[in-house]
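Tutorial handout. Part one gives the primary structure; part two gives the three-dimensional structure as tokens.
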Amino acid sequence: MTERLTTLRCDEFVAQLGSDAPVPGGGSASGLVAALATALANMVGHLTIGKKKYAEVEEEIQTLMKRCDALEKEMLAMAEKDAEAFRPLSAAYRMPEDTPEQAEEKARVMEEVLAEATYAPLEIVRGCREVIEICDAFAHKGSRLAVSDAGVGVLFAKSAMQGAALNVFINTRSMKDRKQAADINRETEAILSVYGRKADEVYAYVRNQLR
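Part two.
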């Protein structure tokens, strides 16, 4: 790529996402949304620290904010990584397979690039698991003035997690190594099941706080 996706202006990213350009796609968009979820959580932290009312939890909040700083960078990096992995995958699908040798080489390359293409969305799924936990903590312990932001953050994190999971599954279904595919799918499904419910619980808590 000639330009990093995460250095584009918001309107440029959206325009490119909605065009016929091969990247960004759903995986990169999920990484960006995961980063936004993390930033929203971090904002709750910034609006909490330094307030006497929350002095008892300030140390914990600051620890969570440091993790947010790292997670935000990780999720943006995975948005880039997802886009970078698409080009070799696209090229591999176009490889000839007219002879047994060509077919064997294509199969070998496909396994490599499918594993690489699965890495970033799987890391986004894993990262969102942690973002949901952080949003939960901030929703319960952070500033009441920013509780809605914790709720938006957890919704974004759930959406990013589900979106990234779809990008995992579209790659694992083409893997010849069915054991590897099954292992990845099993981990992804487990995170979706546990943290999808967790995100719903956090959202319900926030919604009740605003009634």
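Part three, for discussion. The first helix runs from residue 10 to 17. The chain is about 80% helix and 0% strand.
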